[in-house]
Protein 1
Amino acid sequence: VDEFGLISRYFTWPVRHTALGVGDDAALIDPTPGCLTVAAADMLVAGVHFFADADPRGLGHKALAVNLSDLAAMGAQPRQALLGIALPAADEAWLAPFADGFAALAERYGVDWVGGDTTRGPLNLCVTVLGEVPRGMALLRSGARPGDDVWVSGVPGLAALGLAHLRGECVLAAAARDAALVRLHTPEPRVALGFALRGIASACIDVSDGLLADLGHLLCASGDEACAGARVAMPLSAELEWDAVAAPLTALLPPIGDALRRDAVLAGGDDYELLFTAPAACRESITALTAPTTAPLTRIGRIGAAVAGENGSLPSSDRRSAEPVITLIEDGRRTHLRSRGYRHFG
Ligand SMILES: [Mg+2]
């Protein structure tokens, strides 16, 4: 067995609901009638997305978890995963726990590992996941409408605080530190919540870049949809209540410095929570979801009308140049924030 034969040994598992798994030129998949296939891929590069000496078991978990989070944001059922991996050397002491972390999460979400590729090179992981959603039921970024509530799951900023702790930018008490590092290193994808939000949420995205940045993506996509056919599409706007956005983190932590808290909550990436919108009429059904999905849900603001940029001028014909206006309401004061450019942990 050559050294890269070793890798395939660690990554060859029996398939449970796939017609043909690893071993031929390609896998064969039986789609469920009435469902659309949902596909997503994410690349994780050592030194960019994780420390090269990161715990391999956690890394195996996270490489799959961030992809399952994208499926969750679509309301999809995860089905299969493919793994492309470049490794400096086929080191069994690294591969065994990495495969273990990946496989344990795959098992929990009923994901079949059906293929991939291995090569020698700087440590780099590229995971592709496939899932399914009944036709017409997928959650999209583009469905938000003015007047909808904005909700988020979990504790916005928790993963970023874990990173700040590792960088020596703050010192967290043991309980908060543990929670933050778990969210940073082994995030739990909100798959059950994604299912539960089918037919309830008007739009959904997972928070990977930061709350403001990802809300900005949702506002742009929804603005394009709302302005379909218009000469100029403008993003929708949003108002966020600071007390509500910061409440989950504040409940967990003693004072840590206002600037750090603000950066973590508004701009911290890596939370992999779901940020979604829904009509106000859905408040009770959303509150009722909290228990079975285990992730606490917080209503943090509402969607506003499409508006021109901060300077009051219309955006240029390049739709992507229009930056959404997000207003933070704090003690009655209103501050306009930039969805792009507000970066600390970026
Ligand atoms: Mg995403």
Protein 2
Amino acid sequence: MAETTTLTDLFMDSLKDILFAERQILKALPKMARAATSTDLKTAIQSHRDQTEGQIERLEQIFASMDMAPRGKHCPAIVGILEEGQEILDEYAGSPALDAGIIASAQAVEHYEIVRYGTLATWADLLGLTDASKLLAATLAEEEKSDADLSKLAKARINTKAMAKAAA
Ligand SMILES: [Fe+2]
């Protein structure tokens, strides 16, 4: 059993933060998927939504292993990132640049998650929480893959499409 340290408190606090964030993300992704015009982008966002359910389950497992209720903690950072995403949906509805904006918003979310999970996995290691560390690393790998997939989509077509129509 890991000794309780101030780092344990910090770890638990951050775990509550990312749980809140994941739950907000789970609600926001379907709106982004519906708004996207590219089928590939819709599919990518939808599959990340499904993945997010599993990521929340992993977090709940970690809470259970630490005898903690899976309670989130309000995270103004993700609220702000998601609000900006919603602004893009509102302001660029019908624009050829909408999908490029959605990808940018989704990547802002991914990068937030990547930094949080990276930190949490490192702290879990330091605290000797081997199972938690493995679960967090698994989610981190999924977030990194989602981010890379979004970059590929943007570079393959969507950014160009946004530019071409704007120039016409
Ligand atoms: Fe996630």
